[in-house]
Amino acid sequence: MGLFNIFSPSEEEKRAAEVRTGAVAPTRAERQKCWAARDAYFACLDAHNIVDAIKDDKKAAAACGGEGAQFEKDCAAQWVTYFKKWRVQDIQKKARLKELEAQGANKMDVQTEFAPRR
């Protein structure tokens, strides 16, 4: 009986696999764990000047393999892809805003609100 338990995944591992596949929604604690893993992975990418971890996957794996593995382990697979794409877009957006400001563009504070229901 004990021998077979060595080879079967724990309840925690089963739950983590379900979260990764999207079979269950992550809890608040699981989301926070995911975000911490994402932040550690992105910090590593920043330290190695890697912007696009999808396009430069081999370079990212060589430089940040451990952080990337933890990120993929702690987050839903769809979230991993989403966050990697979001990172590229966010960096491009910030670079473009900096470029526009250098060209003398005026910064505008814009607030959007939904129209009130009638």
Automatic annotation (TrEMBL):
<dbReference type="GO" id="GO:0005758">
    <property type="term" value="C:mitochondrial intermembrane space"/>
</dbReference>
<dbReference type="InterPro" id="IPR048280">
    <property type="entry name" value="COX6B-like"/>
</dbReference>
<keyword id="KW-0963">Cytoplasm</keyword>
<dbReference type="GO" id="GO:0033617">
    <property type="term" value="P:mitochondrial respiratory chain complex IV assembly"/>
</dbReference>
<dbReference type="Pfam" id="PF02297">
    <property type="entry name" value="COX6B"/>
</dbReference>
<dbReference type="InterPro" id="IPR036549">
    <property type="entry name" value="CX6/COA6-like_sf"/>
</dbReference>
<keyword id="KW-0539">Nucleus</keyword>
<comment type="similarity">
    <text>Belongs to the cytochrome c oxidase subunit 6B family.</text>
</comment>
<protein>
    <submittedName>
        <fullName>Uncharacterized protein</fullName>
    </submittedName>
</protein>
<keyword id="KW-0496">Mitochondrion</keyword>
<dbReference type="GO" id="GO:0005634">
    <property type="term" value="C:nucleus"/>
</dbReference>
<keyword id="KW-1015">Disulfide bond</keyword>
<dbReference type="InterPro" id="IPR048281">
    <property type="entry name" value="COA6_fun"/>
</dbReference>
